[in-house]
Every structure is written in C-alpha cells, then in structure tokens.
What does this fold into?
Amino acid sequence: MTQDEKWKSKCQMAMTFIETNKRNPSKFVGEEREIRTWIKHNRKLLNAEKLKSERIAKFEELLELVEKNKHKNQYQ
It folds into this structure.
C-alpha cells in the first residue's frame, strides 16, 4: 500500500465515521483517538502549507464535514 493509498483510506475512514455517528471523533475513546489525531496532524500540515496539493481539496471537504458536526455547547 502506497502512502497516497494509506492517506486516502484514513480520509475515507474519518469521513465515514463523522457521517455515521453525526459527530467528530473523541479524544477520550481509544478507537476514535487515532482518527482525531490524523485530522489534527493534517490540519497542521495544511496550515503550514505542507500538505500535498492533490490532497488539499479532499481534506478541505473533510474539514467542512468536521465543522458542520462541531460540538455545540448546550448551555448557550
């Protein structure tokens, strides 16, 4: 499996998780922590302009999904 295939697989796994559970991955649940860490790492790469150009569009699509499912404070 190439690096690009692994990246696409992780991206698809993150999108599937968010679409299925209607929420973002938790840092407290072991299985979800890996997905959350992957998203955070790639967000840092994007902000540092080090993310490969062919990955940017797909990752921005994922970030839109993350933003849409962002936790809302129930007391506001």
Observations:
- The first helix runs from residue 3 to 21.
- Helices lie at 3-21, 30-47, 53-68.
- DSSP finds three helices and no strands in the chain.
- The CA atoms of residues 64 and 70 lie 10 Å apart.
